[in-house]
Write a structure and sequence with these properties.
There is one protein chain. Helix 1 packs across helix 5. About 17% of the residues have low confidence. Strand 1 and strand 2 form a beta hairpin. The chain is an alpha+beta fold. It is built from five helices and two strands. The protein is globular, with a radius of gyration of 13 Å.
Length: 106
């Protein structure tokens, strides 16, 4: 069975949250969404609206475009890796006025 968009989005959001060592409770509070609903989104059980995705990305301090870029690679079954190592990594990149999380290919 093909990977669904909601599953790919959930996987990407969970990987970002886990890479930041943050809990569901912390992110759900910052995104103003129930912990249970965020968990369902991360597990690919619920479809998140564009407004909710934006709120979750804000809480994770990551650009929605970066998450969607990662999701598109997952759905296509390819890595956008230009360095030949075949893996994607979330890293923190300093920007003004605060640290932001960005997708980096390594």
């Amino acid at each position: 069975m093909a990977l669904l968009l909601r599953e790919a989005l959930g996987d990407s959001l969970r990987r970002v949250r886990m890479s930041q060592s943050r809990t569901l409770r912390e992110v759900s509070s910052m995104a103003r969404v129930s912990l249970g609903y965020l968990s369902e989104v991360e597990r690919g059980r619920k479809e998140a609206s564009s407004e909710l995705l934006a709120s979750i990305c804000d809480a994770l301090d990551v650009e929605l475009a970066d998450v969607l870029f990662d999701v598109s690679a997952l759905l296509a079954g390819v890595s956008p890796d230009v360095h030949g190592r075949g893996r994607l990594q979330w890293t923190t990149m300093r920007q003004r006025p605060k640290a932001r999380t960005a997708l980096r290919v390594w």
